[in-house]
Structures are given as C-alpha cells and as structure tokens.
Write a structure and sequence with these properties.
about 600 residues, Heat Shock Protein 90, 3 domains, two-stranded antiparallel ribbon, 7 strands, about 65% helix
Length: about 600
Amino acid sequence: MSSAISYEPNEHCPPAVAAIAGLQGVVLALAPIVSIVVITARAGNQEAGYFTWALFAALVIAGALTALQASRFRRFGAGHILIMGPTPNFIAISVLALAEGGPELLASLTVAASLFYLVLAFWLPFLRRVVTPVVTGTVLMLIAATILPVALNRLEDVPVDAPEAAGPTIALVTLAVSTVLFLRASGVWRLWSPLIGIITGGVAAALFGAYEIGSVGDAAWVGIPDSGGFPGFELTPGASFWSLLPAFVVVTLAGGVKNVSDSVAIQQVSWNRPRVPDFRLVQGSLNTNGLGILAAGILGTPPNSVYSGTSVSLIGFTGVAARRIGYVIGGALLALAFLPKLTAFLLTLPSPVMAAYLLTAIALLFVSGVRTVVQDGLDSQKALVVGLAFSLGVGLDNQTIFADLLGRKWGLLLDNGMLVGALAAVLMTVFLDLTSPQRRRRLEVELRVSALPDIDRFLQGVATEVGWNEASTQRLRSAGEEALLSLVQSDDGGVEMLESLLHPDRPPDAEPRLIIQARPEAGMVEMEFLAVFDEENLEDRLAYLSEETEGMEEGEISLRLLRHYASSVHHQKYHGLDIVTVQVKGGA
C-alpha cells in the first residue's frame, strides 16, 4: 500500500494512470453491486426479467453518482473519489417489501425514503443530539443481524440436480479463499481478495454442476433491457406501505449518518497533509446519495450508498486520489450497463457464492456499528442503551407477537426488530439527554464585538453555577472572548453576502446571529458557537499556528490566545452554518 498520495483530489493525473486506477475501481465495485441486487431480487422471489432490469438500473445510477461525487456542482458532490452502489443496509427490508408488494412497493418506499435522506442532509447539524453514535451504531449492528438470515437462506439456492452439499461447500470455498487472502495477503493480493474468492467459488460451483450460463448466449452485445421487468410504482399506498415506511426511514437515516463518517474518512486519506474535514463536502456527498436513492426508487432498483471500504482501499493501494478517477469509474460503470451480455453473465453467479460474499459484508457492517458505538466512549449508561436496544431488535425480529395481538397491519410494523431496536435506542438516548443533571445553557446574540459584555455575563453565570474558582472562571470567559474575536475578524463582506443569500427576507443591515450553547461536564465546560463564517476553517488556522511563520497574520493573536485558554477546539463547516466547539477545563 502506498505510503503517500501521488495525486491529490485537485491535481491533474496522466490519462494512463487514471485509466489503470479507474479500471481497478470498476472491478472492485462490480462484486457488491451484482451480489446485492441479485440477492435482494432472488430472496424477494422476483422473476428473471426484474433481475436484468434492476442490475441495469443499478449500474447506471452507480456510474452517474460516482462521477457526480467526484465533482462539486452547486451543493452536490464530495469532490473526492466516492464509489457508489447498492447498499447491504437495505437488503432485509427490501426483501420484505418485494415479498409484500413486489417491485412497485419497493419503488414507492425507496422514493419516500429518499426525501427523508435529503432532509437529513439539510438538517444534519441539528440532528447530532438525537442521532448519536450510540443510536447509529446500534442500528448498523441490527441491520447486520437482520441481513444474516437472508444470506444464509441463499446457500440452498442451487439447481435441483446438484448434490445436496453443493450450496454450503461452494459458499465455504468462497469464504475461505477470500478470508485467508484478506487476513494474510498484502498489497495487490489483499486488495483483490473478494474478487479472487468469487472466482474460486464460481469454479467450485461449475465442478458441482451448479453454474448455469445458458442465458448468456441469448443476450445481445449492446442495448437496453426490456423495462417490462419493472412494472412501475404503487400509486395508491396501502397498509403494507405505511407499515414498512418507518423501517425504511430508520435504515435511511442510520445509513445517512454512516455516510457522514464515510465521507470524512475519504477526505482524510486523500491528502498527504492531514486536513480538518469540510462538512460542506460531506453535505454535498449526502445530497448526491439522496438523489441516488430517489433515482433508485424511480428506476426500481435497491437503494445505493457509498462503498467507503472500496474507495479507501483503492486510494491507499494506488496512491491516486485525483477526482478524475471518479469520472473514469463512473463512465465505465455507465458503459457496462449497456452491455447486456456482460450483465447476463454477472447475473449467472451462483447464489451460494454471493451469499458468502455477503457474509463478509455483514461482518464488516457489524464491526462498523461496534466502532461507531464506542467512538465517543462507552459508559455504563450507554452500554445499557446499546445492549437493551440490540436485544429487543434481534429478539423481536421475524416474530409474530404483535401480529397475533394487533393484526397483520400493525404487526408488520411492530414485529420489525430493526425498527423496534432503533426506536428503543432513540428514546433512551433522548431520555438521558433530557434528564441530565447538567442542563445546557443557551444565549443568542448578534455576531459582533459589541455582544462581548452579554457573552461575558453569560459565561460568568455558567461558571458560578458549577462552582468554579476565580482562575477557572477567568479562563472560561477569556476563551469565550477570544473565540468571538476570532470569528468577527473574518471578512465582513463575505459574511454579509452569504447571509443575504441564505436569508433574502432579512433586512440588509441585519447582523448575522451567533448562538452559544454551554454545557457543564465533569471538570469541564463545553461551548458551541453556531454562526456563519468565512471560507477558512478555524481549526485549520489553529493548526497552522504551530508552524514557524514570519510575522503575525490578522486574527492570529486571538487564535493563539484561544488555543492557550481552551483544552480543545473543533470546527465543523456546513452550508449556511458553522459549529465551533470549545472545551475549557476548570475546577472549584
């Protein structure tokens, strides 16, 4: 794996390098795209015509989204290599939707879910108190647990004349080869371990007589599949739609929060010099993904997401993070969609092979949920929230307790373990926040130096409430003062212009607003400054202060003092809103 990035996102890389790296990305993306589409369609008992159409639509959407993610068009795109494709997160509920109402119901639910996803991207800064790492991690763990039966049921999906042990043996061979390579191989062999496992499984299936490729010969070389495989939408939603919609929304929101981490991870590995994550690009990534979920519903294929592991591996191995690679991958996936013979061949991959690949994805998804849960620390209260929510979700999944009590309409909703577990995690998290002995204090002022006396009195009151001594109180007040001065020393013209765009109804002479939230914790006060700032990230500017420079830049004195008084400073930049979090330690 490369130790440094040869071509960063905004750099121009030679066409030959782009072609080679792009080809690797395409091959890596094909395995999950095909396996997720086929597993979902087969588990949902759909006809072959839907398989062909769903894979065509998935390739078209994946190609278009991957290219759009590499760009920065208005509020769409992440400006980095983010390979897109159908996500395993939706497999379990998509299978349930297909079984209940066919592709029409799945399409209607996916379109509705996409609207919630786009709302998430817009309200992302304000949902962080409810959709916490504990909630998101628990939902990801529940998604993995609910997908597992779907994967295991595919092991027996082999031709009737194949030996009885064919399915499990083929899956075991596929899983063993890919796992051994991933655990012990290095360099190119580790990168290609999933594909090598799939090829090995296909060979094993052929030896068992469980590989049927007769449909490949009938497919055309170039063309578009018959759209008859997708009959359209369910325009009059019934009980099944309303029963399954909450589960789709929960999975969509959890996937959206995970996509935030994915986008941040891609930003971090794409540059030689570490940068503070730009959350405007994160929102651009979310907007693009939401658009893709909407397109998936319109075209009748499983919803999509970012393949973060594939994207990070590709960048790390090749050392190429140039955005051009995203255009190459996107264009290639679009081209492959119009080659029916190739897609027909991909659809012939045996179900046990795809089930084995899916088992690996489930394992990684579960571990991702565990990591998300523990990223902010796991105390006894959070541990109980996670354990109880996960137990309820797994225990109630696929049961008929509520269906027997309330009938099928409500039973379909309440017997969904993933929904029940997620709801339990949210309710317990909100309860902990509302009943916290340390109440969050709030102050709203104009973003100007004249607001300093109000801020000073506010912070003085916070320090008095928690019983801090004079030195700690002064440090808290000084940190608040320097944070304000650092913000108001931004380019006033830029702030005014952005404010006029965000709030066209506001009078021209109105000042930007600054909201300060202070929350006492154990031996510390955490302050959040919410306002509209200039293009430069304060956290980046604080990092630059550690370098040797000649002279002082404007605003540097306040930044140096802020770093002196505060124990940590974090800056998250969104479209239309920035959040600066300052932590100050103190004592009685």
